[in-house]
Amino acid sequence: xxxxxxxxxxxxxxxxxxxxxxxxxxxxxxxxxxxxxxxxxxxxxxxxxxxxxxxxxxxxxxxxxxxxxxxxxxxxxxxxxxxxxxxxxxxxxxxxxxxxxxxxxxxxxxxxxxxxxxxxxxxxxxxxxxxxxxxxxxxxxxxxxxxxxxxxxxxxxxxxxxxxxxxxxxxxxxxxxxxxxxxxxxxxxxxxxxxxxxxxxxxxxxxxxxxxxxxxxxxxxxxxxxxxxxxxxxxxxxxxxxxxxxxxxxxxxxxxxxxxxxxxxxxxxxxxxxxxxxxxxxxxxxxxxxxxxxxxxxxxxxxxxxxxxxxxxxxxxxxxxxxxxxxxxxxxxxxxxxxxxxxxxxxxxxxxxxxxxxxxxxxxxxxxxxxxxxxxxxxxxxxxxxxxxxxxxxxxxxxxxxxxxxxxxxxxxxxxxxxxxxxxxxxxxxxxxxxxxxxxxxxxxxxxxxxxxxxxxxxxxxxxxxxxxxxxxxxxxxxxxxxxxxxxxxxxxxxxxxxxxxxxxxxxxxxxxxxxxxxxxxxxxxxxxxxxxxxxxxxxxxxxxxxxxxxxxxxxxxxxxxxxxxxxxxxxxxxxxxxxxxxxxxxxxxxxxxxxxx
Length: 598
Prior knowledge:
Layout: H1 2-13, H2 25-37, E1 41-46, H3 52-65, E2 71-76, H4 79-91, E3 113-117, H5 118-123, H6 125-134, E4 137-141, H7 151-161, E5 166-171, E6 175-176, E7 188-194, E8 200-206, E9 210-212, H8 214-219, E10 226-232, E11 234-238, E12 244-248, H9 255-265, H10 272-289, E13 296-301, H11 304-318, E14 323-325, H12 332-341, E15 346-349, E16 362-368, H13 374-381, E17 394-399, H14 402-409, E18 417-419, H15 422-428, E19 449-453, E20 456-462, E21 465-467, H16 479-483, H17 493-512, E22 515-518, E23 521-524, H18 541-559, H19 563-573, H20 584-596
Parallel strand pairs: 1-5, 1-9, 2-3, 2-4, 4-5, 6-18, 10-17, 13-15, 13-16, 14-15, 16-17
Antiparallel strand pairs: 7-8, 8-18, 10-20, 11-12, 11-19, 20-21, 22-23
């Protein structure tokens, strides 16, 4: 016990209370509540980016300095977070060992504890139990919902830390588990639920001891305001019967069709991905030019193959090589640190930056993954909302599909850990899992094949309200306002949507003429008017007519002319039948004419 108490004395000498960085109001309030109750278990639910780590380590330092505990054990989801926790603890005057393995028995001398992962705890729960009971120990369970990721992790956590002196549970996300996977050390209360089929039942809901939601954090300038830029488009794929199916992301009729359209849009061979990457890159440029010179973006991919393909597209579209961060890369942690402190514009990853990883300069997120659980969504969006200055904002680019738009619209809701009755879980299961994998028959022949997908701006979602940037009276924005795109207080969400929609047409031209990468070779893809349109849904007549209508709206707003007058002028400039019966060549010519009028 001697080394622990000596370390505790050093921690007291370097207490965060003497730090020049003051605690936030919510952290002080939560600490005050803990001091008043002095509980064995305490659950804090705070939005990502609010400062849960600082709160936890401040509490740990106080308990160590008063000798109410002699050891601190932090349990976190990933190995990279072990290093992050250890660095933060060192800054708070607490020495935690991030490299202690299950092969080593006792806690190393000269430290006040260690940082481990849920997987390590599940490997040898009795070893961790011995460490946590050898002296009075505070166990910090970071993102405690991971103790519900299967019965083994939950049971192991309870076995390892069930007799610890103190337990502090932290989470920043809405999450739900199966009825038989209750998270240990979390207090539940019964609540009534109504299922999709109208049937009801009694389920369980977690009750936090202290809650600090996104709305409160936004009001306190603790997190950035975030807007969601939704992109729709037409996807075409071949199903297992060999039939070619086409559907819009935002207008798919059934859930199964929506999932297939979504999967096709994410395929690297289509046009949806490069179009959205170009929009994301354009957004980063705006942020860098308007008060955030180190702004960066994150692209979340479904798997490593897609991540590698997306990285090539980023290089082709932007001319810059992104940071590619994969979970099986032994240098992944170093790459995250390099990206967090460097100047690279974009990082492409699978799940390495989805939870807990601190990259404060990341302010743009492109959702190119098939995952759509509330937990993963909140954690991923949390990577771009950490505030550093009051003028910074965050933008999330995402497919305009129902599951993601629902999650985005409910961003500001406070939600607890939900364990609904079994009857209601069945109806929601499709939204809790990632998209199904690409099927193959026993001979290895694909049962589904993506053909192509286009992209176009659909709307901007802000505080649960959609702004299309279109209509009979589009918002007029001058050049000075456009320069400050997205800075809170200077542009309304409707104005931001109008500008994104305007830029969308320019990006379409940019992508159509961009270079397509094939291995190490580059092949120029020209926009030939006479090429076969049958295999290019983004060039078909229906899409061109929609584009023309949008452009007519903007020209009418700019010139204060009725839309009918603009249509008449357009037919005079580019003669031919009305758009409803005009050929693709005529429609293309009219589109280009309208662009010159803006």
